[in-house]
Amino acid sequence: MTLGLAEIYLIPKALWERFTDEELELTVWFNANSEAVAYKVGPA
């Protein structure tokens, strides 16, 4: 059990590995508390 700490690293790493072969852009939106609230992956 990692108490959710591994996901902070593993999820972005998995996304990066999946999309590195393509020209894509990752956009992340944050709220006033600096928490990520949404993301979008699309063509660069």
Structure description:
With 44 residues, this protein is of the alpha+beta class. The chain has one domain. The chain contains one helix and two strands, in the order H-E-E. The protein has one helix spanning 5-19, and strands at residues 24-30, 36-43. The protein has a two-stranded antiparallel ribbon with strand order 1-2. A hairpin with a 5-residue loop joins strand 1 (24-30) and strand 2. The longest helix has 15 residues, at 5-19. The chain is flat. 0% of the residues are buried.
- The number of distinct β-strands equals 2
Overall pLDDT? 76
Backbone structural class = alpha+beta
Looking across the biggest beta sheet, what order are the strands in?
A: 1-2
Contiguous helical run count:
1
Tell me the number of structural domains: 1
Largest sheet at a glance?
A: 2 strands, antiparallel
Weakly predicted, low-confidence segments: none
What is the string of SSEs from the N terminus onward?
HEE
The proportion of residues in beta strands is 25-35%
Q: What is the 3D shape?
A: flat
Terminal Cα span: 36 Å
Radius of gyration: 12 Å
Which percent range fits the helix content? 25-40%
